[in-house]
What we know:
By secondary structure, the protein is of the alpha+beta class. Helices cover 19% and strands 39% of the residues.
Amino acid sequence: MKHLTIFLSGVITGLILLYIFIQLNSAPPNTNEVKQSPLNEYVGEDISTTSSVTLGSNQVVATGKTDEVYIENILVNGQKAAGSDHAGLLKAYPNQEKPEIVIAWTDCGGSSCGRASTVLVDLGVTPPFYTYIDEIYAKSVEVKFLKDNIFSINGSANYITNEYGDLIDIEIVYDRQKREITFLSKYSYLYVDVIGVHPNSFLGNEKARQVFLDTITPEQFRDFRYAMSVSGGVSLINNGRTIVSSGMAPHSGGNPSSFFIIDILTNTFIVGYYEDGQYTFYSDKNLSHISYDEVSLINEFLADNGFVWDYDTNSAKLDTRKVNQFR
């Protein structure tokens, strides 16, 4: 049921991504339509010296530390949107007098925290929409109106790098009407037509499967593909950033079975292949550097066979908390 839920939500996200691609590549809106949006008349106003802005009955506030509260918070109409050792407001679009879109930030302040993460707040809708975007460096964010309640959120990555270690540029589409954000990538076109399909169709698509073939051998690919034969489908999750799927060989009872995770921002993958009580992993990235979110996803799949990710060996180990359950 858990994987079915992931699949269904992923199919819906995939359809949304396809819709956005069609919309963004359709004929541009007329000039009058664009000028109606105040977000096109301003580049945003610096509000880093203020602690709150208000639009109608909606308000976003950056709170300081107190004797009772040891962190700083971003509050939207009194509800916590994000919090850390440090937090503040950064920019309002189109300006401070009419702050429809507000960019706020949080930062733990430590050397291991990286750079300030982004909090996107839309005070122009009721109730206000807000979301935490850890992937984008807040001080680099630019907001632009595209058309039909669709906005682009662009900026430099907080920690995501390319194969040379350079921080990448990130683009997010915010759909105000649907109250959703979706990551876009220069690699998105490789996968937009194969979200929701059976993994065999995905792995049979020359564009989509190339991410694996640059790293693993044909024999490894055939085994991995066969171990995906019985599956619910390919899903797009994490606001359009991550492609996932899992399956098993026919009439195998899950031995062998497999799963894959693709990060379309960097076009990198992780494959987990299970057979005879052991997991083998294939990846084009250093498994010692995979993110917490990726480990969380991996653990969802490993749990099916009573395993958990082992940070010491960068592989899978039996989850001793669940061993008795599988005996």
